[in-house]
Amino acid sequence: MWEKPFAQIVVRPQRYTRGYVDHSDAFTLCAFPEKYAGDLTIMGTISGRDGDKLSQTNFTPRPSTVVAPPSYNEACLILECRTMYRQDMDPAGFVDQSTHEIYKEKDYHRIYYGEILKAFVNE
Ligand SMILES: Cc1cc2nc3c(=O)[nH]c(=O)nc-3n(C[C@H](O)[C@H](O)[C@H](O)COP(=O)(O)O)c2cc1C
């Protein structure tokens, strides 16, 4: 995108994560081996607003190399990204009308484009 390698994330307004992403100019994106599926379910169902969910997982944070947000030692792929663009999803753009059903509360995702500054693969 814009002649840069990029990755895209989407974050709903009610996520605790949202404040961190909006108050930063960077984010990290991690992929994990299959054996961490249970840990990802914890991260993806409990809110950090309600307590320290990380301590309920096997994940250990590690500093990034060129951005402030950290990533995780257990990730098999880490992308360190600099935020280039963000915009709330516009429901007028839903070509598939059934998508409206997903947003009954009108809590449309905010879309973030990140320039991938560094990528790491853990074997
Ligand atoms: C597999 C999976 C993928 C998810 N992807 C997203 C996503 O892309 N954007 C989002 O806003 N929430 C996503 N969620 C939901 C959040 O991870 C979940 O609401 C989480 O508890 C939010 O935590 P937080 O409040 O600490 O940010 C996902 C959940 C799962 C299980």
* Regions with little confidence, pLDDT below 50 for 5+ residues: none
Helix count from the secondary structure assignment: 2
Total discrete domains: 1
Strand order of the largest sheet: 1-6-5-2
Q: Could you say what the CATH topology is called? A: Pnp Oxidase, Chain A
* Bound chemical compounds: flavin mononucleotide
Q: Give the CA-CA distance, first to last residue.
A: 28 Å
Largest sheet, in brief, is: 4 strands, antiparallel
The CATH class turns out to be Mainly Beta
Structural class: alpha+beta
Strand segment count = 6
Please give a structural write-up.
Helices cover 13% and strands 33% of the residues. The longest helix is centred in the middle third of the chain and has 9 residues, at 37-45. With 123 residues, the chain is an alpha+beta fold. The chain is globular, with a radius of gyration of 16 Å. It has two helices and six strands, in the order E-H-E-H-E-E-E-E. It has helices spanning 16-22, 37-45, and strands spanning 6-11, 26-31, 61-62, 71-72, 77-88, 110-121. It starts with 5 loop residues before the first strand and ends with a strand. The chain has a single domain, classed as Pnp Oxidase, Chain A. It has a four-stranded antiparallel β-sheet. The chain has a two-stranded antiparallel sheet with strand order 3-4. Flavin mononucleotide (FMN) binds at residues 10-12, 15-17, 41, 44-49.
Essential attributes:
13% helix; binds flavin mononucleotide; 6 strands; alpha+beta; 123 residues
